[in-house]
Amino acid sequence: MKQNTPKLGNWGLVFMVGALIVAPIIFVKGEFGGADGEAQEAITEIEPQYQPWFNPVFEPPSGEIESLLFVSQAALGAGLMGYVIGLYKGRTQTKPSDSDKP
């Protein structure tokens, strides 16, 4: 039985993902920053006398290390999710059939 091949091949998908990555860099003008800095600016603008309740437990020495920790956390989470999805997919595909029962 012949499988239907998709009109858009793997290289087309790679190109589309690349375009989604590059397009914001080209067309969005301004700085790319985190939401933490934006929130702090908004709070200071609304209430200039505001004092934080506590200080961070760990402050990375540089922005690069902070980015490394963030990316490592994202990769670990994605790997864990992929493992769990694969595990459940494998379990559903290898269920014992009636002929395997004694």
* Number of H- or I-type helical stretches: 3
Helix-strand pattern: HHH
Helix content range: 55-70%
Kindly provide the radius of gyration, computed on alpha-carbon positions and rounded to a whole number of angstroms. Answer: 24 Å
- Cα end-to-end separation: 33 Å
> Strand percentage, roughly?
under 5%
Q: Based on helices, strands and strand pairing, what is the structural class?
A: mainly alpha
Q: In terms of per-residue confidence, which ranges show pLDDT below 50 for 5 or more consecutive residues? A: none
Number of strands: 0
The largest sheet is: none
Instruction: Characterize the overall form.
Output: extended
Average pLDDT number: 83
Can you walk me through this structure?
This protein has helices spanning 10-27, 35-46, 63-93. The two termini are 33 Å apart. The radius of gyration is 24 Å and the shape is extended. The model has no long low-confidence stretch (mean pLDDT 83). With 102 residues, the protein is mostly helical. The chain has three helices and no strands.
